[in-house]
Design goal:
Largest sheet: 7 strands, antiparallel
Oligomer: single chain
GO molecular function: FAD binding; oxidoreductase activity
Strand content: 15-25%
Helix content: 25-40%
Organism: Umboniibacter marinipuniceus
Structural class: alpha+beta
Cofactor: FAD
InterPro entries: FAD-bd_oxidored_4_C, FAD-bd_PCMH, FAD-bd_PCMH-like_sf, FAD-bd_PCMH_sub1, FAD-bd_PCMH_sub2, FAD-linked_Oxase-like_C, FAD-oxidored/transferase_4, Oxid_FAD_bind_N
Number of domains: 4
Strand order of the largest sheet: 15-12-14-13-17-18-16
Radius of gyration: 23 Å
Keywords: FAD, Flavoprotein, Oxidoreductase
Number of strands: 18
Length: about 475
């Protein structure tokens, strides 16, 4: 649908002329996200600056039967912030203020449009730390992070976004205003509705404010990159470091992922001996004892034959350089038009799952190159199938979808998830049944109906 001139004028009355955008370039920029499989087609972009304005828009939209798409930093990879059918996009970019600092409770109350890196800086200014971190922290917004329950590189130590949300202010799909948990550490008074909105992908309400927990500043850390011959050995390495050190992160990547990154960056091979897989381990080393424990664990893994070669950072600069071996992979393989899957299984099942997926792709599409990386310490794998140069994009995508169906069947057998951290959005809604039972989906639809009876919030996302 397209908005009529009277409807546009009504929006301007609520927001002001400069906070309603209609130009095609703006519609394209603010109407989608990083998922490039869908073409944005919003009718307008609205920029509220207060919770009251968001509530006024939602109430107006219910009266006018106008569909809304909430939009944060638009860094999602599942199309959850994409407006396909003339919806009005509610962009939270201008709601980015720090509302309240509570040092005694180690919390910050912020507007939902605050960029993640800004929140991290506010925490650092207090001598504290917001630990949920990922490559898009410079552009993602805290409201979007909450709506998708974002994870990142240190989930193994600090958990997901959900674990750091102490309170929420939400405008539901019916226009009701909810103040959820109010930043309390202990509040045992029935259903904690706050957690319904974490990971709800904008289908139940629009998050406008959040009270975020912080923790103590991190201690000095050391980074190791270890070459490993077998996936099962990665699990042994993980167990060894967890037993002997404080592990902040445990990432992995395949050799072809490393090769692509090095070719893109021009940097040298980190190890003298190549290996099929690599583990990146970050451990706390605030004392000489902890540093010696990390080194001893490294040497133990070499003696056991789990690791064939490795390097251990000797400075912050070298640690950052080693992290780039993992963080630069997505950018380096982008020219190969990768078909991405964000998957998870129990940590103990990772080697068997990876081997099974490799065999599925090799059997059905032997010319496809598979590039692996991910947060293996929490069971999250990023599968990237790289497009052969001679194959057209549309044909490649169709063939990958057929592969995905087989992979999702394996996910279901192993009790895993078809979307570990990127959400469902448009991209994965057809696959929801692989990870959620009929009973779960039925109850989720009932909750959506309860909070958004007119069905105006993010229609077509998560499920139809």
């Amino acid at each position: 649908m397209n908005l009529s001139l009277p409807q546009i004028e009504a929006l301007r009355q609520i927001l002001g002329d400069t906070n309603v955008l209609l130009d095609e370039a703006d519609l394209q920029h603010f109407g989608g996200d990083w998922c490039r499989q869908y073409s944005p087609k919003p009718s307008a972009i609205a920029f509220p600056t207060t919770t009251e304005q968001v509530q006024a828009i939602v109430r107006w939209a219910n009266t006018e039967q106008v569909a809304l798409v909430p939009s944060g930093g638009r860094t999602g990879l599942s199309g959850g912030a994409t407006a396909l059918n003339g919806e009005l996009v509610i962009a939270l970019d201008k709601m980015n203020k720090l509302i309240e600092t509570d040092v005694a409770s180690s919390t910050l109350k912020v507007e939902a449009g605050m960029v993640t890196a800004q929140l991290q800086q506010h925490a650092e200014d207090l001598g504290l730390f917001y630990p949920v971190d990922f490559a898009s922290s410079g552009s993602s917004q805290i409201g979007g992070n909450i709506a998708t329950n974002a994870g990142g590189i240190k989930v193994i130590r600090y958990g997901m976004t959900r674990d750091w949300v102490a309170g929420l202010t939400v405008v539901t799909g019916s226009g009701e205003l909810l103040e959820l948990n109010k930043g309390l550490l202990k509040n045992n008074t029935g259903y904690d509705l706050r957690h319904l909105f974490v990971g709800s992908e904008g289908t139940l309400g629009i998050i406008t404010e959040a009270t975020i927990r912080l923790c103590a500043a991190p201690k000095p850390a050391t980074v190791l990159v270890l070459g490993v011959n077998e996936m099962t050995d990665l699990m042994s390495v993980l167990a060894s470091f967890q037993q002997q050190t404080s592990v902040n992160a445990f990432e992995f990547f395949s050799h072809n992922a490393l090769e692509a990154n090095l070719a893109h960056s021009g940097e040298a091979q980190p190890l003298a001996e190549a290996a099929p897989y690599y583990a990146l381990v970050e451990v706390e080393t605030a004392s000489e004892v902890e540093t010696e424990a990390a080194l001893a664990c490294f040497e133990h893994c070499l003696i056991e034959g789990w690791v064939v070669d490795g390097v251990m950072s000797q400075s912050e600069q070298q640690a950052a350089s080693l992290w780039r071996l993992r963080e630069g992979i997505s950018e380096s393989i982008a020219p190969r038009t990768p078909y991405k899957n964000d998957l998870s299984v129990s940590v103990s099942k990772v080697p068997a799952f990876l081997a099974k997926v490799d065999s599925i792709v090799a059997e059905h599409y032997p010319t496809f190159e598979v590039c692996w990386f991910g947060h293996i310490g929490d069971g999250n794998l990023h599968l990237n199938i790289l497009k052969p140069e001679e194959l057209a994009v549309d044909a490649f995508v169709e063939q990958c979808k057929a592969v995905s169906a087989l992979i999702f069947e394996e996910i279901a057998r192993m009790g895993g998830s078809v979307s570990a951290e990127h959400g469902v959005g448009l991209l994965k809604k057809h696959a929801l049944s692989y990870s959620r039972s009929e009973e779960e989906v039925r109850l989720m639809k009932q909750m959506r109906q309860l909070f958004d009876p007119a069905g105006i919030l993010n229609p077509g996302k998560l499920f139809d």
